[in-house]
Amino acid sequence: MMTLYSTITCPYSHRCRIVLHEKDMDFEVIDVDPNNKPEDLAVMSPYGKAPILVERDLVLYESNIINEYIDDRFPHPQLMPADPVMRARARLLLYRFEQELFCYIDEIESADAKAIEKARVAIAENLTLIAPIFEKQKFMLGDEFSMLDVAIAPLLWRLEHYGIKLPKQAAALLKYSERLFSRPLFIDALSASEKVMRK
Questions:
Q1: What is the distance between the alpha carbons of residues 199 and 196, in angstroms, rounded to a whole number?
Q2: Structure pTM?
Q3: 24: region left, alpha or beta (phi > 0 left; psi from -120 to 50 alpha)
């Protein structure tokens, strides 16, 4: 059985919980208090933070790596494209999400008001740039829910919580967000703390 060490408010842990629920498999989630981390966390990950996936003698950290492993191990439903070219493109987009969106999470969760405002503006601008995709298609890669939707969903869920306001040009992205949030498995993957992040 897989065990996921997960922080109840962390968007990266949220990603892994979504994938585990999508795969409908046996797993255990151990909630980690970020202010009072268990000592074995530092042993399992050089960065000492969740999410961490443990399966027998395998220990993985980094949400995208964990999620790709789960997808390879349990291929139904498949979340990464089967075609090597599409798969490489998906990996590039996952990388871009980290560089252009999730890189601002630490600043938004900091106490530095200037950094928070700068991060909010950058995230809003970068999300607005991808909004037109959803005027033509249901999900990030077309009609099928994929790992790209998994990767971005936790950020979209937290927009209000992070104080990020999107302009009218991002209307299609907000509609896409609602499609993601209405998935029963998305709701199942939410921690109690995440449920209260949105009114």
A1: 7
A2: 0.95
A3: left
Structure tokens at 165: 């306001």
Q: Mean pLDDT throughout 71-85? A: 95
Of the pLDDT bands very low, low, confident and very high (cuts 50, 70, 90), residue 143 is very high
User: Which amino acid makes up residue 196?
Assistant: V
For residues 142 and 138, give the distance between their C-alpha atoms in angstroms, rounded to a whole number.
6
**Which residues does 174 contact at the CB level (< 8 Å), separation at least 6?**
166
Residue 145 has pLDDT above 90, yes or no: yes
- What DSSP string runs through 75-122? -SS--S-SSHHHHHHHHHHHHHHHHHTGGGHHHHTSS-HHHHHHHHHH
Burial of 1 (0-12, 13-18, 19+ CB in 10 A): exposed
Q: Counting every residue, how long is the chain?
A: 199
The catalytic residues are 10
